[in-house]
Amino acid sequence: MAREHNYYVYLLASKRNGTFYAGVTNDLLRRVSEHRLGHASSFTREYDVHLLVWYEAHTDINQAIQREKRLKKWNRQWKINLIEGANPEWDDLYARLAM
Question: How many domains does the chain have?
């Protein structure tokens, strides 16, 4: 019996309507924590992009990677619409996940 894995596609923001970063991981809490500590990406460290504003779970890594690649090509307004559709207040979702 194969073990089911979870993979997460996520968007970080520097602030509401700020700079965005899209990523994929198999451990969302760990990866966002790495971004917050400045250990994950020079981009997120340089632009202070650390608020988890959107994510979705996948069970297939290839689907997750494809979704991340598509998101990276999206224009800014599409990303804003995606975030606001699920998180209209732009809350930092990391705090909810860490509880």
Answer: 1
Q: What is the CATH number of the domain that holds 33?
A: 3.40.1440.10
The Cβ of residue 9 has, within 10 Å, a number of other Cβ atoms equal to 23
The per-residue pLDDT for range 38-96, each reduced to its tens digit, is: 998 899 999 999 999 999 999 999 999 999 999 999 999 999 999 999 999 999 999 88
Q: How confident is the model at residue 98 (pLDDT cuts 50, 70, 90)?
A: confident
DSSP state of 69: H
Q: Which of 15, 6, 7 is nearest to 83 (CA)?
A: 15
Q: Considering the entire predicted model, what is its pTM?
A: 0.92
CA atoms of 29 and 70, how far apart (whole Å): 23
* Domain limits for position 66: 7-98
Give dist(CA 96, CA 80) in Å, integer.
Answer: 21
In this structure, are residues 24 and 9 in contact, taking their beta carbons and an 8 Å threshold? yes
